[in-house]
Amino acid sequence: MRDCLGPDPDPRRPTLPIPENTCDTHCHVIGPVARFPFTEPRSYTPPESPFESYMALRRTLGIRRSVIVQPGAHGTDNAVTVDAVERLGGEGRGIVVVKPDVTRDEIAALNERGIRGVRLSTVLAGGLGTDHIATMADRIAPFGWQIVLHLKAADELVALAPVIRALPVDVVIDHMARVTGDEGSASKPFATLLELLAGTDHCWTKICSWYRLSGGGAPYADMRAMAEAVMAARLDRVLWGTNWPHPLLFEPPMPNDGDLMQQFLEWAGSEERRQAVLVDNPARLYGFS
To answer: Which of 206, 253, 263, 273 is nearest to 15 (CA)?
Structure first.
C-alpha cells in the first residue's frame, strides 16, 4: 500500500472561456478520516482532500456541476460520497462502489440521495470487478443507473465488448479505456472503444486522467489524438472530468488542474464541442436541469 501525492494547491484559472453549467463528471472527495475512515485493505493511501477543498477548485475553474465518484480508499462505505452529493444539492450526482449482495432497497435509498451509478474496477481492491457486470446491470436497470468501468489495462475492453454491447444500461468507460499514449489510437483497444461509441447508444467515455496515461509526460501530446478521435466518433457520448485530487499518482510532478482544463478546452477546439462535452452530455446522462 503506497502513499499518494496531494493535488496542486494553487490551480490556475483557464484562459479560454468556460461554458455556463460546466460539469466535472469525475472527481473524488476523500476524508476527513476522523469522520470518513479509510477501508482495510485498500490499494493506496491518499492525503485528505475534503469537500471544502474541492469546492475551492470548482470556484477557480468555473465548474457548476459535479459527479462525485466513490474513491477506492473508502471502499464500499459510500458515506463520504453521499455526503458530498447531498451538500451539492441539485448541482451534484454520485457514483458508488457496492458489495455483490447490494439489495434493491439499498439502491433505492441511494438513488433518493442523488446517486446515479455503480463503479466496477479491476484496478482497486475492496470493490466489485467486471465479473459482476451483467448481474449489476440487471440490478440497477430499474433505477436508470449507469455502470462506470475502471479498467486496469485497455486490453480488458476488447474481451468485455460483446457483454457491454448487450447490457440494458448506460456504460461509461473511464479514462478513454486507459489506452496509453504508447499504445495509441491505432491500437485494438482504442479501435474497440470507438466501435462501442459509434455503434451503440448506451456507451460513453470520459476524457480524464490522460496525464497518467501519457508516455511522454507534459504536455501529454501523445494523448491529444485519442481525445480528438473520441469526440469525432461520437460527440454526444463524451464526458470530461478533473479526476481531482488525482489518487494513484505516486511520483511527481503533480499536474495543475487549471492547466489540465485549459488543455482539454484547446483539444476540444470549438465552442460546439466544449458545450457538448462539458454541459449538454452530462446534463442528459445525469439528469441535470
So the answer is: 263
What are the average pLDDT values for consecutive 10-residue runs of the chain, which has 289 residues? 93 97 98 96 92 98 98 96 98 97 97 98 86 97 98 97 98 97 97 98 98 93 97 98 96 96 98 98 97
Q: Copy the grid coordinates of residue 240.
A: 470530461
Rounded distance, CA 130 to CA 136, Å? 10
Task: Give the separation between CA 10 and CA 275, rounded to whole angstroms.
Answer: 26
Confidence (pTM): 0.97
- Could you give the C-alpha distances from 40 to 10, 72, 76, 90, 267, in angstroms and in order? 31, 10, 11, 32, 39
Cell numbers that stand for 225 in this block: 489524438
Output the 3-class SS for 193-220: HHHHHHHCCCEEEEECCHHHHCCCCCCC
